[in-house]
Amino acid sequence: MFHSRARTSSPSRALAGILRIVCVAVLPGAGALIAQDRAPNDGPAVTDASKDPFAKERLEATVRHLAGESFEGRGFGTEGNARAAQWIAERFEAIGLRPLGDGWFHEFKVGGKVGRNVIGVLEPTASASEGAWPHVLVAAHHDHLGRRGKAVYPGADDNGSGVASVLALAEWFARHPDGLRARLVFVSFDAEEKGLIGSRRFVQQATIDPATIRFFLVFDLIGGTFVQGEEKNFYAFGSEHSPPLADIVGRAAKGSAITPRLLGTYLIEPAGPLFSRSDYQAFRSKKVPYLFFTTATPWYYHTPFDRPERLDFDKQSRILHVARDVVHEIAKREEPLGFEFEGGASASDARQVVQMLQRLVERREALALPERLASTIADQLAEAERIVAAAEPPGTTALDERAKRHLQQCVISVLNAARRRPR
């Protein structure tokens, strides 16, 4: 996610009766795939095939459920978090996915508490011509901050919106499996708010061999608008490491009412890649081509005000149509995407940053920006415009380290502006 401060340390028909899954013996915390035996949770149903899984009403119902009182903010290691993981597993089963291995959960331990990644698999309808199919992963994290004192942090955008996105895509692909040339794996990670631990353990324990993963897509905060002027945009990081991804996203978004800003991941990692912003990091470290889709961190991020009424479900629906087409194309192609580990800064990044700064300058009064911040943004805009001019003609001209650092500082200013609650 976009962050303007350090991270806090830190879902079909309703199933009738009780979901019974046989438990298998495992060593606690060993990362085994296991099943649980719990009563199902009420929630929005998986409806008949005439209902669009990307309909805003369905997305909203899922987010409202996950942000509801029964899950108590989904704090790691809490009963509410465990209920959320169980509900997601039930949704995967009702959608028609199958578990990976013996159960829906990949369990791990953190500080004596059990974390549960939830994993559902959709197999291609055809048989692989040679060996096994590669994997395409679609993921989000379901944990949030839980309770702090008397306050419950609902986590509607962070990351109920991401889980709703994974479930919607899982349902769509379960209805349209023809032509896939990859196993689609849908994952809901736990312990992201504890330092991306669920995704790290998933990769470290080779739950799926990273060498067999063709592509990884992660959603984190995908339901809002983090600053005025960005209502028709979302952010797609990662294509700098795999240039074909930029073309694929461009084709998927063509004619859409939503525009992806393709940006280098370095822009949100001013302290370096070890301080990454979401669950893509563990996959990037294994040279897995990835995209991180987000609408970034608005003023309500990591507060009790992160509630469903603040989200734009029309916008989220449009983003998911783009995401569907991206995943569909990648899951049908045979050639690899490739991975360039040292994805650098480009003139394209600079042009995107200039556009964001210009919108802040145009809206400085509506945003009630402090004079000092407004002045800083104006100065940064002028320098960013010089960087763009020096990189002409348009293209993906590589930028030097000084320009890279300036663009990172520009993004920090954008984030500082976004932290201000709208009037």
Explain what this protein looks like in three dimensions.
The protein is α/β, with parallel strands linked by helices and 423 residues long. The protein has two domains: 33-332, Zn peptidases (Aminopeptidase, 3-Layer(aba) Sandwich), CATH 3.40.630; 347-418. It has helices at residues 56-66, 79-95, 156-175, 197-204, 244-253, 281-284, 313-332, 347-362, 371-390, 401-418; strands at residues 33-34, 98-99, 105-110, 113-122, 135-141, 146-148, 151-153, 183-189, 213-219, 233-237, 259-263, 290-294. The strands form two sheets. Strands 1, 2, 3, 4, 5, 8, 9, 10, 11 and 12 form a ten-stranded mixed sheet that branches. It has a two-stranded antiparallel sheet with strand order 6-7. A hairpin with a 2-residue loop joins strand 3 and strand 4 (113-122). The longest helix is centred in the middle third of the chain and has 20 residues, at 156-175.
- Percentage of β-strand residues: 5-15%
State the shape.
globular
Order of helices and strands: EHHEEEEEEHEHEEHEHEHHHH
CATH C-level category of the largest domain: Alpha Beta
Instruction: Quickly count the domains.
Output: 2
N→C terminal distance: 24 Å
Report the mean per-residue pLDDT as an integer: 88
Residues in helix, %: 25-40%
CATH architecture of the largest domain: 3-Layer(aba) Sandwich
Radius of gyration (CA) equals 21 Å
What composes the largest sheet?
A: 10 strands, mixed
Helix segment count?
10
Topology, number of strands: 12
User: CATH superfamily of the largest domain, called what?
Assistant: Zn peptidases
Return the structural class.
alpha/beta
Low-confidence stretches: 1-30, 35-40
The CATH topology of the largest domain is given as Aminopeptidase
